[in-house]
Amino acid sequence: PPQTLFQLAAAAGLPTGGWRERSDDADPTPSLSHTQPAVVLDGRLFGPLLPHPLQDACRGLASLLGTPLLQIELQQVAAQNWRFVGATGMADFRNGGKPLVSAIAKALATRAAA
Question: Taking a C-beta distance cutoff of 8 angstroms, is the pair 41, 32 a contact?
């Protein structure tokens, strides 16, 4: 069977937390408004300053998924305690600012020239 995104995230080293079946009165999935997005583009990380092991794990997930662009949603649950919430192939440019926009433009130009 194909691996789920959370299984791949755990394999890459991202903290995914435990899994438990949800009952009607259980806490819902964390709101994305309380998350920190990190963007991986061709192995470069854009967004919040993360601990090095977490940076490596974000790059690892992008590599496992075989995608050059991946936005990873992380929730900070304590000072140095993060949890993987999800990932998407669409990047919010506000997270990486002008450096991310410039890197995407350069990557597209390089790919177009190849």
Answer: no
Which parts of the chain fold into alpha helices (H)? 5-12, 52-65, 93-113
CA distance 84 to 53: 13
pTM, whole model, 2 decimals?
0.80
Query: pLDDT tens digit string along 36-58?
Result: 899 999 999 998 888 999 999 99
Q: Compute the distance between CA of residue 87 and CA of residue 42 in angstroms, rounded to an integer.
A: 16
* DSSP letters for 23-69: PTTSPPSPPGGG-EEEEEETTEEESS---HHHHHHHHHHHHHHT-SE
In which region does residue 48 sit, left (phi positive, over 0), alpha (psi from -120 to 50) or beta (all else)? beta
Helices (H) and strands (E) in the chain, counts: 3, 4
Tell me how far CA of residue 67 lies from CA of 46, 76, 99, in angstroms.
15, 25, 19
